[in-house]
């Protein structure tokens, strides 16, 4: 009998749901068992084990949900509900050794993802998916809007850290970002004219070293990149690239941290 990883969320029935990931790809329980001609298919829930327990035990304990034959969910109905992961990195569009998100088709190099992927056997979700899932869990009725100065003061707890990592990943994904990734001081004239250089790889390093105590530290470094760009390039084409990326950053920042400016917040009306 072969080995693989069982993904609970992809499990449906014996012939629906490619829920077992092996060295050679995804398999339904039936396809997985078919690799061994000796196995009796009728007792499939007893033949496959996960974490030392048979599927039968997992199903009886509600850890796995066996779908009914008339189930109308996406796994039971769609030919390929979970397309295979991309074979190029979502961030740098290059190939090589990639880590695949278990919730979306995106793949990443270990260090292109923020934070860098720590290789482990458990299910792994990319930062985009974690943010999306957190948003889905939020109750729109109870959502709170902040003013920018309140957000900047927030301490860098895991929630804030995650949002900053997400913002930074979105920056790297922009076509304008190529100019701002590496240390600009490799151009001599730059270091002569810009007093405090800043670049995306530097922000990424500081973020992963937990250098920032507050959200403000991160935002100030990001804004420094754009400030330097304006100062150095003025109105040339690179200046325009910087301005475009800056506008995107400010928009994303407000969206991700639920910021509303004072005049957008409903003012209480007193009689
Ligand atoms: Zn189903
Ligand atoms: Zn990459
Ligand atoms: Zn993902």
UniProtKB/TrEMBL annotation:
CDD domains: PHD_SP110_140 (cd15626)
Coiled coil spans: none
Domain Bromo: 170-240
GO cellular component labels: nucleus
SUPFAM superfamilies on file: Bromodomain (SSF47370), FYVE/PHD zinc finger (SSF57903), SAND domain-like (SSF63763)
Pfam families per the UniProt record, alphabetical: Bromodomain, SAND
Name assigned to this protein: Nuclear body protein SP140-like protein
Positions of the SAND domain: 1-65
Keyword set, alphabetical order: Bromodomain, Metal-binding, Zinc, Zinc-finger
Ranges for domain PHD-type: 70-132
Listed GO MF terms: DNA binding; DNA-binding transcription factor activity, RNA polymerase II-specific; zinc ion binding
InterPro entries linked to this entry: Bromodomain (IPR001487), Bromodomain-like_sf (IPR036427), SAND-like_dom_sf (IPR010919), SAND_dom (IPR000770), Sp110/Sp140/Sp140L-like (IPR043563), Zinc_finger_PHD-type_CS (IPR019786), Znf_FYVE_PHD (IPR011011), Znf_PHD (IPR001965)
UniProt entry tagged with the keyword Endoplasmic reticulum: no
Keyword Metal-binding recorded: yes
Organism: Phascolarctos cinereus (Koala)
């Amino acid at each position: 009998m072969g080995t693989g990883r069982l993904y609970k969320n992809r499990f449906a029935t014996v012939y629906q749901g490619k829920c077992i990931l092996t060295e050679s790809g995804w398999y339904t329980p039936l396809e997985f068992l078919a690799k061994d001609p000796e196995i009796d298919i009728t007792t499939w829930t007893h033949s496959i084990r996960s974490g030392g327990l048979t599927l039968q035990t997992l199903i009886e304990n509600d850890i796995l949900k066996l779908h009914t034959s008339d189930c109308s969910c996406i796994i039971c109905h769609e030919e390929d509900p979970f397309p295979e992961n991309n074979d190029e990195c979502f961030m740098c569009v290059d190939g090589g050794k990639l880590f695949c998100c278990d919730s979306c088709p995106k793949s990443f190099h270990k260090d292109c993802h923020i934070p860098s992927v720590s290789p482990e056997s458990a299910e792994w979700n990319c930062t985009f998916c974690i943010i999306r899932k957190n948003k889905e869990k939020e109750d729109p009725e109870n959502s709170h809007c902040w003013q920018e100065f309140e957000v900047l003061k927030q301490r860098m707890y895991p929630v804030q850290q995650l949002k900053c990592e997400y913002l930074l990943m979105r920056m790297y994904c922009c076509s304008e970002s190529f100019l701002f990734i590496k240390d600009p001081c490799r151009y001599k004239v730059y270091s002569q004219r810009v007093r405090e250089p800043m670049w995306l790889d530097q922000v990424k390093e500081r973020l992963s070293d937990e250098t920032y105590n507050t959200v403000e530290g991160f935002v100030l470094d990001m804004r420094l990149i754009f400030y330097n760009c304006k100062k150095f390039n003025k109105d040339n084409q690179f200046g325009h690239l910087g301005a475009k990326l800056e506008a995107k950053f400010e928009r994303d920042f407000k969206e991700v941290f639920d910021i509303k400016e004072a005049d957008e917040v409903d003012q209480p009306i007193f009689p």
